[in-house]
Amino acid sequence: MSDLELMAGAVLTIDLGAVVDNYRHIQQQVGPAEVAGVVKADAYGLGAVPVSQALAEAGCRRFFVAHLQEALSLRPALTPDATLYVLNGLQPGAEPIAAEAGVTPVLNSLDQIDRWRNAARDLGRPLPAALQFDTGMSRLGLPSEEAAELTASPERLTGIDLRLIMSHLACADDLQAPSNPAQAAAFDAFAAQYPDVPRSLDNSGGAFLPRGHRDVVRAGIALYGGAPQIGQPNPMRSVVTLDARIIQVRDVPAGTGVGYGLTSVADHPRRIATIAVGYADGWPRHLGGRGSAFIDGRRVPIAGRVSMDSITLDVTGIAPQHLRPGAPVELLGPHQTIDDVAADAGTISYEILTQLGGRYARRYQPAHEPAPARSPQS
Ligand SMILES: *Cc1c(COP(=O)(O)O)cnc(C)c1O
């Protein structure tokens, strides 16, 4: 164990080989469509630079972040042939920064289109963009009135080099949702006006809907091991493990309260172990009294509230050799997935990952994959 790992409350291990396996699995699922890597929010908390570089080595050439600032910090880590899209588009005034940095905004409104066209005119060169239509989620993208206005005045796109037509599904993680075919039909109708531009509709959930996947799939959570579909077996490999260590163990008599508010009291004696992970590390406070950890493969419930920097576990019945100071405690791993923790906490795996805190020691397992051979013609 390194000094950094000795000093931290827990070790977060990120398996880049599993990310690459998941990328290939999605690619098999959606081929001939191409899989793009969604690496917003620091690749869902796992590190945008190492994750993007592992994906690039596996052949990924399109990446999506949410904010321009994320794009600026990731751009130098990518090769020039990689396209980096900014999902939320650009704030008014940020156009020259994006143009200079060589990033591709997603244009979500006529206003954004006008500002990007003006930036292209001012620079005297075409600027790349993706165009998003709102097909029913009411979040981002041209609403149908604006889409009709654009159809009526195509000159508004002068100087804009359209690289992608996209939309986003509201219920892609639900195989039965009637909004999925409705959004797909609306999307195809819009996209038909731009027959030469690649189309992108599906995220991780969409990749596992039993139908075609247009030209580009924007995969996020499935790359990181999250279940793409609710209520279906998860075909993805787990990417993260989180191992805490025992810092102290005590025996408490029956009737003794544990933790803030003394909310956990039992009518029998208990053995309580404290670990150095808390809600400041992104472990949800909502797991107080309902979450679990695993020691030597056995479930140990969280006793009492989650503190800022520590959690108390009921380890009654666990063999003493597994309770020594420094002994490992699994928070994420073979016995507990990000989806399990999310279910206990009443949230989704996305939130568990993106909240993973900055105080963990991080260990990256490399993908160990040679770069794919480039064909001489390309
Ligand atoms: C976040 C996001 C994605 C990735 O979604 P996952 O469900 O994580 O695969 C794709 N497209 C858009 C527009 C997004 O905002």
Short description:
This protein has 12 helices and 16 strands.
Word description of this protein:
With 378 residues, the chain is α/β, with parallel strands linked by helices. It has twelve helices and 16 strands. An eight-stranded parallel sheet has the order 8-7-6-5-4-3-2-9. Strands 1, 10, 11, 14, 15 and 16 form a six-stranded mixed sheet that branches. β4, α6 and β5 form a beta-alpha-beta unit. α11 packs across α12. The longest helix has 15 residues. The structure holds pyridoxal-5'-phosphate (PLP). The site of pyridoxal-5'-phosphate has 12 residues, from α10 and β9.
Q: Secondary-structure blueprint of this entry?
A:
Blueprint: H1 3-7, E1 10-15, H2 16-30, E2 34-38, H3 40-44, H4 48-57, E3 62-65, H5 68-74, E4 83-86, H6 95-101, E5 104-107, H7 110-123, E6 127-132, H8 144-152, E7 160-166, H9 179-191, E8 199-200, H10 204-207, E9 216-219, E10 240-252, E11 270-275, E12 292-295, E13 298-301, E14 311-314, E15 328-332, H11 338-345, H12 349-355, E16 361-365
Helix pairs in contact: 2-4, 11-12
The structure holds pyridoxal-5'-phosphate.
Largest sheet: 8 strands, parallel
Bound molecules: pyridoxal-5'-phosphate
How much of the sequence is in beta strands? 15-25%
What structural category characterises the helix and strand content? Answer: alpha/beta
Give the helices and strands as they follow along the chain.
HEHEHHEHEHEHEHEHEHEEEEEEEHHE
Mean pLDDT: 96
Uncertain residue ranges: none
Overall number of strands: 16
Rg of Cα set: 24 Å
Report how far apart the termini are. Answer: 45 Å
Spatial ordering of strands, largest sheet:
8-7-6-5-4-3-2-9
Shape from CA axes? elongated
The helix content is 25-40%
